[in-house]
Amino acid sequence: MSVPLVTIGIINYNCKKYLETCLTSYFNQSYENTEIIVVDDCSTDGSVEVIKFLEQNHQNMRCIYHPQNSGGPSRGIQEIIKEARGKYFQWIASDDYAEIHAIRKFVDYLEKTNNDYVYCNLNIVDENNRITAHWNYTVPTPDEMIYRIFTYCSGVIPMNGLYRTRFFHENNITWSIYKDNDYSSDTINSLYFIKNGLKYGMIKESLINYRLHPGNCSHKIKERIITSFTVYDYIIKNFDELVYLPHIQWSNQKNREQFKNYVLAAFFYNRILRYIKLEDIPHYIKYSITGEKIKECIQVFVQEGMRYLQEGLTQGDALKNELELLAEKYESIFSE
Q1: What is the CATH number of the domain that holds 116?
Q2: pTM as predicted
């Protein structure tokens, strides 16, 4: 009996140190019917030479070389989706790698269900492939996922499992870059796929090894803050407030749209305060970041919060006093 083709897409940028480990983990899969697409994002560390050498010795491997760096993984993922010949596909960063039975178990799962996506728990490994921790996941409902992402501004499921290629073709979608932000785009795309009806499940095994090392523990605080804003913005613009803010008594409000603007303005103000107090900044960054730098980074939150305030003030007098008081708090942010 023939087994379906699986496309493995590997995104590489200056990861020569780990690249061969990643590729070898897919050359050695117990599932044999695979094609491997490597997308190199204009590496300068000798990665290209490694890729070309391996390509000569593996007929199922083909490569895409970017003449200029694209600034993130999303363009490469889009190319993998476009070029995938397989019934299923996976994308993975070149510093991560798979267990030997990963693809076989993923395929077995999708062949037995009508789901579009399957993921797994992750082993966390260091620079020397030593397992240092495990990240274990659940299968939240779509509403639970939206709520948790809005509450914690963090991804809820990993996005480097196995996808049914047909899901993208039938919905005419690809990997999304929302508001041109390609920094930690997994979270946005989990929301984007849910919006398009993604059906998903998981295997409760650690089949993917996710590498934590200095190169991927970014200290780019501005990108982190802007990314959190884009996540909030995407949820607000695409999902019902009853889902992402379920504890608020929305039905009791006479002027619901004005109330929503007030609630969102207050939400962004509270986020601003937390950033100013360094409460949502990773510990390895907070001691090297200045107050002035934080205030520069949170401008996007200030502007959006003020926009909700101004809109609310045009919607009647029901919450006029509350909105004006909150506007004063916004104005005081940079006077302190």
Answers
A1: 3.90.550.10
A2: 0.93
